[in-house]
Amino acid sequence: MSLLDDAVNRRRTFAIISHPDAGKTTLTEKLLLFGGAIQAAGAVKARGEQRRARSDWMKVERERGISVASSVMTYDFKDRTFNLLDTPGHEDFSEDTYRTLTAVDSAVMVIDAAKGIEEQTRKLFEVCRLRDVPIVTFINKMDREARDPFELLDEIEQTLALDVCPASWPIGMGRNFLGCYDLFHDKLVLMDRADRAHVSDTVAVCEGLEDPQIDSLLPDWAHEGLREQVEMARGLCPAFDLESYREGHLTPVFFGSAINNFGVRELLEGLASLAPSPRAQPSKDREIQPCEKKVSGFIFKIQANMDPKHRDRIAFLRLCSGHFKRGMKLKHVRSGKLVNMHNPVLFLAQDRELAEEAFPGDIIGVPNHGNLRIGDALTEGEEIHFTGIPSFAPELMQRARPEDPMRAKHLGRALQQLAEEGAARVFKPLMEANWIVGVVGALQFDVLADRIRTEYGIPVHFESTALYTARWVTAEDSHELKKFTDSNQAALAEDHDADPVFLARNAWHLDRAVEDFPNIKFHKTKEQVF
Ligand code: G4P
Hints:
With 530 residues, the protein is of the alpha+beta class. It has an eight-stranded antiparallel beta sheet. The protein has a seven-stranded mixed beta sheet with strand order 2-3-1-4-5-11-6, with helices on both faces. Strands 18-17-22-14-15-21-19 form a seven-stranded antiparallel beta sheet. The site of guanosine-5',3'-tetraphosphate (G4P) has 20 residues, from helix 2 and helix 3.
């Protein structure tokens, strides 16, 4: 096997999707702990209260140096190299969170056992579904009062239209949570609450449900219930099917408690054996296979620097094929120019100084001055136009107004650039002079106002609007589209590429338009092809 084939086979690039507070940070930390990437818990970043107290978002911005570093976390486990891509949540929630999911090959969905599927998990799941990203589920916080496991499985199946297959079965919950029965390896794994900060070897005590040891190890209520429930679960749920999981139709479900390190090893082992290696990436012309010799990749995220004097950016490149080496010159397909990769930020190595190479599935940070955009391809020469890196319809929209009305044009240019960079959606209503800015996380308005002020020198206000959402509109027949735009002038705008967008005032307004114009397609995402 060649070096490239071997590296591709080893790689597992994934993200964690969850609702705030379900335990993503805790689980991330524990995955790194098990992977040996950190030595003790508490090293990743502020959790829970600590983070909420950090309400001053400027602090978050100042810490960008750290957040770039923790954007991709790499660790090894069982002959696999994992790249865990951070999906910013809480106040950092933005379109980047969605876009990160276009750069992974699989995802772990973390669910709070007391809460089940929550809003943000569902939204992120929908983004995964766009590309049928395979999902492993981790039901966390079993050490607290939790909902009935059957009910939780049923909810996942019903609300997400996803087949579920329990990989482990919990024994008790809350104070009585004793551990899990591993359904994939038929063994009992008991929880050790002793030391949360370090990992010890899993206590696998017996083999098979019929093993009489189970009766002596577990109290009466537990062993009777366990056998009964496992039998029921096996009867009710489909058997695990690797293909179905890889196609995004079935999710194996692990139960555990991240804070107690419990279930994390099983989850990691599950990922190591089940999660797919880097996928083939679709493009307008052909599918790019990871083991192709020539290097290629696409930009899925751009992080602006904090220094207002420099418009420095770090563009995050997901490698799709080839063996990348530092110092390579790659072609920026959209401009035709060569980009010298002499200074890439390589997230792969523990020791950044020594990182000289990277492989498909890895992420490279490319410093640049704003010339790289979301969706751009970098290749060793071929004109590749990657697909599957869409823009997402904003969920919050505000009107941008410069403090000095004379600077409206400058503001327009700044917004255009920010939209090209992917920092926000920007719409110019046909019947209005001001720009409408759309984001998916409320704090992004503050981030944008600050960037426009510091980077472009334009003090700007964001004002609330009565707008509900935006949809890109298309039609097969251009006359139909014209008919629609003519009769909806007041609700129409253009995005930064001058593509038409319908701005809905409320859900009813949108439904009405969809009903009245059956030949118009209303898109929640816009596919970008550069
Ligand atoms: P997030 O990144 O998804 O937002 O969640 P995070 O890991 O920050 O966890 C949210 C809260 O849930 C934290 O508590 C964390 O300690 C707790 N938690 C995570 N996993 C478990 C678990 O398995 N069991 C229990 N009982 N709690 C868990 P906090 O009080 O908000 O913060 P902290 O003071 O504990 O750091």
